[in-house]
Amino acid sequence: MSDTIYALASAAGRAGVAVWRLSGDKAGPALTALTGKPLPEPRKVQRTRLRDGAGEAIDDGLVLWFAAPHSFTGEDVAELHLHGGRAVVAALTRRLGELGLRPAEPGEFSRRAFLNGKLDLTRAEAIADLVDAETAAQRRQALRQLDGGLAGLVEGWRSALIHAMAHLEAVIDFADEDIPDTLLGQSVREVRSLEAEMAGHLDERRSGERLRDGIHIAILGAPNAGKSSLLNRLAGREAAIVSAQAGTTRDVIEVHLDLGGWPVIVADTAGLRESACEIESEGVRRAEARAAGADLRLCVFDGALYPGLDAATLEMIDDATLVVLNKRDLMTAEVPAAIAGRPVLALSAKAGDGVDALVATLAETVESRFAVGSAPVLTRERHRVAVAGAVRALRRFDPAMGVEMAAEDLRLAARSLGRITGRVDVDEILDVIFHEFCIGK
Ligand SMILES: Nc1nc2c(ncn2[C@@H]2O[C@H](COP(=O)(O)OP(=O)(O)OP(=O)(O)O)[C@@H](O)[C@H]2O)c(=O)[nH]1
Ligand SMILES: [Mg+2]
To answer: For ligand 1, atom 30, which residue shows the shortest CA distance?
Structure first.
């Protein structure tokens, strides 16, 4: 028998509504002790007064009762909708302790739901993602996963593998009899097509993970090009210090933006140049590291110096780069159509002209590089590792080299996929997954 746990699942403001969730064998007795009434009918809201051990009223509120196994956790669950005031919270916390309940750990409700077969791991992860979702695209992705999109995809692959395995077992068991060659040929075809489909989901850009964690954009350029001015424009606030002195920015400065529903982390960096100053050199080293790790780069050139172009910045340009020609207001030369083969966005970070066009282009670029469509995607590294493991096993699969070995490859692939939904090797991954959760979920 496990402990009975409780959590204050949400509190909206000081006098707002607070939802409490109690789960475990003592949830029922605790509810009757609090209300002084028999348990309400399951799933029917009851308005009632809740009292402490001495019979003094704690609050007036709504209670709900979910009898095991028909609850979120699969255990007996009570929910209390009370006022969120501090005194109410304190009194109820004390009373629940007296009644033998303990506060839940982060993710403990979802963990119990998983262990009781109410959720697979991808759905449990989706709950955490939904709670953390900051943009519309993140919310949509989390909901799709919560609806079982990813679980369905992975379980479909897994059952197809098990099906192919059964074919092979038949070949092994009836080795003395005549098994039509076509049976083997069919297995091979099935496995090859599965392998291709799974490999197709190992998208190199890791769109699902990017959408979950945020897309990293680094602003790069020579000192004084106007990188910090641009960051401040994008952020809509003075996040970084701007000055006419070259070498102002040293540390990497990040701002989080919602770019048309995409979570984006824009990093301003130190101007790229050789410097005798130890601090500035470290800044440049950090800028280069950030440039290497970024999903997209904004290379900023100083328009006042055009047609002169900074060589160190030119070196950074690749096909994941947007080229910005800043200080358009000071430009005497024509704006070129392209620099280093990339289209040019001319703007003035100081005055703000052209910044909207840059934001629009950035949003389009992000959308076209990372859009995930409506198909389920892998949203965590552990999903990708598991699918990659399965694909590796399937690439080895070759019944011509021995049917037993081939069956073992299928078993390994199915096992690797089973880790995603939590069908196999559960213990080692549970702690990792559920510790990311907030309390009350
Ligand atoms: N006229 C004009 N001046 C600008 C523009 N953008 C930036 N500046 C000026 O250029 C100078 C340098 O701007 P910053 O944004 O600090 O440049 P930075 O690239 O961050 O420089 P470091 O941090 O030293 O690498 C400041 O005096 C800005 O006011 C612009 O569009 N037009
Ligand atoms: Mg700067």
So the answer is: 327
